[in-house]
Amino acid sequence: MGLKAGIVGLPNVGKSTLFNAVSISAKAQASNYRFCTIEPNVGLVDVPDERLTKLAELVKPNRIVPTQIEIVDIAGLVRGASKGEGLGNKFLANIREVDAIVHVIRCFEDENILRDEGAINPVSDKEIIDTELQLKDLESVDKKLQRTEKMVKTGDAKIKAEYEVLKQCKEHLEQGKNIRELGLGKEDKVAIADLFLLTEKPVLYVANVDEPSMHTGNKYSEALKAAVAKENAQVIVMNNSIEAQIAEMEDPGDRELFMEEYKMTEPALNKLIRSTYKLLQLQTYFTAGVQEVRAWTIHEGWKAPQAASVIHTDFEKGFIKAEVIAYNDFVQYQSEAACRDAGKLRIEGKEYVVADGDVMHFRFNV
Fold first, then answer.
1. pLDDT at site 186
2. What pLDDT digit, counting tens, does each position of 275-294 carry?
3. 1: CB partners within 8 A, 6+ apart
4. Taken in order 18, 21, 24, 27, is the CA torsion positive or negative?
5. Which residues contact 293 (CB under 8 A, 6 or more apart)?
6. Secondary structure letter of residue 352 according to DSSP
7. Distance (Å, rounded) from C-alpha 79 to C-alpha 85?
8. Residue 17: is its pLDDT beyond 90?
9. By mean pLDDT, which of 78-82, 170-174, 344-348 is the weakest?
């Protein structure tokens, strides 16, 4: 579906290290100097899903295809980025192109890793990024507000409603608040849809801690959690360097031993990737056959024809019906045939809203 999550943060907080750990198709250079990442690195990331593995065990297909999301490693922002400081305009443009933000914040002390902002302060770091994004959004809103203001006099109700939404956004941003906290309705969002506002994008915070704090967190990660509590945003605590080491291990046995040593049941990256997937309001359905067992990405709330379109647009155009088995039923009865015999295979039409985990087969005619 081409959905992207962008990794952002101040310089030297562990963004590229995190990207290296999650990416399966690209590796970013991680170095101890500012603006190491100038062009955004892009990588495709498999979404870990135990359900896919379980279905494959039952069906025994020729291949297994997980669903993926795109992760973009965006260069470190600095104070003044909204005014072009530190190649700011370029970096902010890169953020504008992503659908969600993964904000990495340094929550560890290390005198060997450069830091321009003085003592470690995750709350201040968050506010620096927030301020730069808010200032850029304010600039965009102001420009459209000026254009719209001239047209309000025509008495067009639609223009007037748009003008009121823009004024509301301007006031909110001037108070140092993000647009995603404004609670705009679906119709109101239409007024600002063409602006692709940076602070409207959903955000997930990564507290990059030192090794001793990777399971428990520390005073810095706790301060960050307190600071974002009102945003209803998730904070994932992890040690990016450890995660990068795990990702580099090709031998599953070595990986398992390494994680055992650090008392890990799975890489923290798995949680991060799953959380990012949810942040984008995505869900998964499966197709399961001898040729392949595959996970497909759709938006929450999509109906059957839309879900079919991610396989091929012809599936949506000529949609007739969908054969649907709930994941838990498939696992319980262990095959499509057994589910059919037990009455667990349902025939659904065009209005069916696909549930997360559905195992589906589409009938179509083009």
1. 87
2. 999 889 999 999 999 999 99
3. 282, 297, 298, 299, 310
4. positive
5. 52, 55, 56, 59, 61, 63, 64, 65, 286, 287
6. P
7. 7
8. no
9. 78-82
DSSP string, 326-341: -HHHHHHH-SHHHHHH
Considering only residues 141 and 109, tell me which one the structure prediction assigns the higher pLDDT.
Answer: 141
CB 218 within 8 A of CB 249: no
Q: CA-based angle 6:10:11, to the nearest 5? A: 105
Q: Which pair of tokens denotes residue 128?
A: 């620096």
- For strands 100-107 and 203-209, give the pairing: parallel
Residue 248: its H or E element: helix 240-248
Q: Note the pLDDT of residue 40.
A: 58
pLDDT tens-place string over residues 307-334: 999 999 999 999 999 999 999 999 999 9
Q: Which two tokens stand for residue 124?
A: 């201040």
From residue 332, give the alpha-carbon distance in Å to each of 178, 329, 338: 46, 5, 9
Q: Is the dihedral of CA 68, 4, 192, 165 positive or negative?
A: positive
The residue type found at 77 is L
Digit-coded pLDDT (tens) for 141-179: 999 999 998 888 777 888 899 999 999 999 999 999 999
Task: Give per-residue pLDDT as tens, 18-72.
Answer: 888 887 644 444 433 333 333 557 888 888 899 999 999 999 999 999 998 888 8
Residue 251 CA to its chain's centroid (Å):
28
Separation CA 30–CA 27 (nearest Å)? 9
What pTM was estimated for this model as a whole?
Answer: 0.84
- CA dist 127 and 88 (Å) reads 16
**Beta carbons of 168 and 157 less than 8 angstroms apart:** no
**Distance in angstroms (rounded) separating the CA atoms of residues 237 and 255:** 20
Nearest-angstrom CA–CA distance, 72 and 69: 10
Beta carbons of 66 and 49 less than 8 angstroms apart: yes
Burial (0-12, 13-18, 19+ Cβ within 10 Å), 105: buried
Residues 360 and 315: beta-carbon distance below 8 Å: no
Beta carbons of 285 and 359 less than 8 angstroms apart: yes
CA distance to 54, 154, 348, 364, 365, per residue, from 352 (Å): 25, 43, 6, 15, 18
Q: What is the largest CA-CA distance in the chain?
A: 71
CA distance 160 to 152: 6
